[in-house]
Amino acid sequence: MKIFITSLFVDDQAKALKFYTDVLGFIKKTDVPAGQFRWLTIVSPEGPADVELLLEPDENPAARAYQKALREQGIPATMFKVADIQKEYERLKNLGVVFTVPPTKMGLATGAIFDDTCGNLISIIQP
Question: Taking every annotated instance into account, which residue ranges of this chain make up the domain VOC (predicted)?
């Protein structure tokens, strides 16, 4: 058994796709109509192409409440591994990404947290 698709709730799929591809550098894998929304997945150019992140609409009240609660508590919705956190932090800051936590030593790793503009806090981490 292995991870195939994991979801990230977003408040606007088009805005999320733009941010996750144009700013973060992910690649759109699947984009098909699904009712009034889209089945919209991205993959990492640095990882296996069969591990997808679904940019899922937060239209379900439970999803929206979960997303809001995580954000209010400062908890990232997901975490991405980077090879050089300082370099990635500077690259993203130069692209206008707003960080709520700059690179900070956290036990065996260094992490930072930013706003994805789609309702989530996201962590980047360098082990």
Answer: 2-127
d(CA 75, CA 97): 17
In three state form, how does the secondary structure of the chain look? CCCCEEEEEECCHHHHHHHHHHHCCCEEEEEEEECCEEEEEEECCCCCCCCEEEEEECCCHHHHHHHHHHHHCCCCCEEEECCCHHHHHHHHHHCCCCEEEEEEEECCEEEEEEECCCCCEEEEEEC
Global pTM exceeds 0.85: yes
**What's the confidence (pLDDT) of residue 105?**
97
What's the pLDDT tens digit per position in 25-39? 999 999 999 999 999
Domain residue limits, the chain: 5-126
